[in-house]
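Help needed: design a sequence for this.
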């Protein structure tokens, strides 16, 4: 992350101690619109320091970085059920546009086996 020229690492401090971090990067895509996108890869603030504007300041700095690198849109991923994250991102204007689903391979094989028997 530190060596990526298209990425930015941020460390938030309180009383000279780290309380959070963020990492964002800019990606160019030839087959999509917009072609240049900023991606918030990671953001974390220690629980005792949340809801005090630190996350918003970090996203603001990432947004400045994205814009300086030609990004027209910001993207991110978060885990379903992370209500604090969901609320934070929603307040910043993010909307869900894609759903990612996961399953263990063993579970997939079990369901495929049932489908084979039903065919």
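Sure. Designed sequence:
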């Amino acid at each position: 992350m530190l060596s990526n020229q298209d990425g930015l690492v941020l460390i938030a401090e309180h009383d000279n101690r780290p309380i959070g971090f963020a990492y964002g990067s800019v990606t160019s895509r030839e087959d999509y619109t917009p072609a240049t996108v900023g991606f918030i890869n990671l953001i974390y603030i220690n629980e005792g320091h949340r809801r005090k504007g630190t996350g918003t300041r970090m996203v603001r700095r990432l947004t400045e970085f994205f814009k300086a690198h030609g990004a027209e849109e910001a993207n991110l991923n978060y885990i379903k059920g992370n209500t604090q994250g969901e609320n934070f991102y929603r307040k910043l204007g993010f909307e869900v546009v894609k759903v990612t689903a996961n399953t263990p391979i063993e579970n997939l094989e079990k369901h495929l086996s049932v489908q084979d028997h039903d065919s």
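The mean pLDDT is 91.
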